[in-house]
Amino acid sequence: MRRVAVFSSVIVLLSIAATGSDYKDSDDKDKDRFAPGPVSSYRGATTIERIAMAAVPYVSDEQVRTAFGKANPPKYGVLPVLVVIENTTGKALKLDLQADYLRPDGKHIDATPPSDVTFIGGSGKAPKLPGSNPLPFPRGAKKGPLNTWEIEGRAFTAKLIPVGEKAYGFFYFQTGYLPGAKLYLTGISDATTGKEFLYFEVPVEKQ
């Protein structure tokens, strides 16, 4: 019983830490400006094993301005996709979330790390081959017009979702919006048992 009690205490502490650091809606200065709605408010919302998810491409000028201010990722060939996850499983979820953009033809596009996005449009940009991911940025490359705090600050970083809570943030893909595309998500597990959910395919739907 002592072991169970100790483990439960750890989960509670992790939940508090996650709520205070990983969740975008915990940032008071940013809460009023950018606060996504519930998963059910978005087209393409999907619920699997009591985990509700939505994947929202930010393509319109209004959407982009609301999330990124003066930075405009689509102008530089970067598609920001907002991921919102709600946990109604009755147990905490541990996250090491990985996202692929699954094109309608079945090809996968890896997410570009937020730190790399800040170099796009700058000098020394790495070449991009058609139908593939870009090569790594060369040494000495300079950051470009997407070097703003919002790019990294709004990225999906949550590592735990307590019971009844939600987490959200952006993944970035060097592609355009394609109707019929999905996000292929992995890296969600039961925080208590460590059992990992296999994968989720979530429609990427314009709003």
Distinctive features:
4-stranded antiparallel β-sheet, 207 residues, alpha+beta
- Counting helices, strands and paired strands, the structural category is alpha+beta
Percent in strands: 25-35%
Tell me the overall shape: globular
Tell me the series of helices and strands, N- to C-terminal: HHEEHEEEHHEEEE
Number of domains: 1
Largest sheet data: 5 strands, antiparallel
Uncertain spans: 1-28
- End-to-end C-alpha gap: 49 Å
- Mean pLDDT, nearest integer? 84
Q: How many DSSP E strands?
A: 9
Rg, rounded, reads 18 Å
Count of discrete alpha- or pi-helical segments spanning 4 or more residues: 5
Helical proportion, percent range: 10-25%
Please provide a written account of the structure.
- The protein is α+β, with helices and mostly antiparallel strands.
- It has one domain.
- Helices cover 20% and strands 27% of the residues.
- It has five helices and nine strands, in the order ααββαβββααββββ.
- Strands 4, 5, 6, 8 and 9 form a five-stranded antiparallel sheet that branches. The chain has a four-stranded antiparallel sheet with strand order 1-2-3-7, with no helix packed on it.
- A hairpin with a 5-residue loop joins strand 4 and strand 5.
- The longest helix is centred in the N-terminal third of the chain and has 20 residues.
- The N and C termini lie far apart (49 Å).
- The N terminus is likely disordered.
